[in-house]
Amino acid sequence: MQKQLVSHFKHKIVLFLAPYLVFFLVLLLIVMALFYQDNNNDCQSTDTTVTVTTSADKEAVAKSIHDNLKKISGVTEAGIAGYLGNTENESGFNASIVQSNATFNESTAMNASISGYALGLNQWDNSRRVELLNYAKSQNKKWSDAGLQLDFALNHDGTNSDLLKQDLKMSDVDDATEFLRAKWERGGAGTTSKRQSYARAWYAKFSNGSSDTAVDTATTGTETTQNTDNTTNNSSGCSTNVAQGMGTSGAPVKEIPSAYKSKIKDTNFTATSSSNTYPFGQCTWYTYNRMQELGTPVENYLGNGADWGKNAKAKGYKTDSQPHVGWAVSFSQGADGADPTYGHVAVVEAISDDKTHFLVSECNVVASGTGTVSFRELTAGQGVTFIQGK
Question: Disordered: where is this region (predicted)?
């Protein structure tokens, strides 16, 4: 009888507590789900919604883009101005424009082999144009949506998005503008001054006197910066357009190609000289250091990369149109992918067994501005001058 009472009492307790146990179980599951979701966000995109005004007023669109870009950590007013200057030159802030004011034709636009049919704010062409259209379809939006285009530029344009974000953190308006034209837009040769003029005007309008740029904000946006004295070293030196391809036979690599490893005896590519007055990380800075290391030095103040050939010759250096191991090589504007404004300069490290190619070491090609050394295999052609150190 006593056992029956105990059993009956336990049964009553279970019935009494059952609803509470269910409630606490459900609550625990909810808490665990929220905890998992919060932690899972660490692996998800942190992109914020990009909404750009559709106003026909150019300044309103520019302001809307500016405000969206300001949300990104680490951006500068100078970097944003560079983007705005390029965008104004490309499209006039008209997100629905087709190059040459052509009528949009989807079959044409979806053919990546067709050039000269660029779309949108930044005039995406060829495969980038197709990728923009496909992204728009995946989002169920029109390709002409300015917000979608800015989102695409920042987050979905492959390695180009990384280049854009790199630019947005730059501290000089002119440099940021030219970086985008040469390495992100990859076109518009001869329009640098115009783009920089636009960028300066937007900087003056939106920066509120910010001190994160070396550009004088008192400018009206109409002046242009020119390299008036190529024998002084006040310029950035040079840069090279990686995305357009590097020369006739090879892309830049960070390791010496296997075919050339046995040919290079001095592999101290990181040697620096205290007498070097060229800007850190530029091709001119590296070439000066490397030539010093090889025991055939060149002097300071040879100008931009494109100017080294003529300036060195005028100063008594021996020059040639054919490569020689241990000589510097000056690339004129645009030669072998060199910057169309400043040109480029590198060092010849080795000649191929069949004498048809040569290997250069260089800087400011991979991870621009960081002092990273890289290598390319090239063939001698137009627009290059080889310089023997003294």
Answer: 210-239
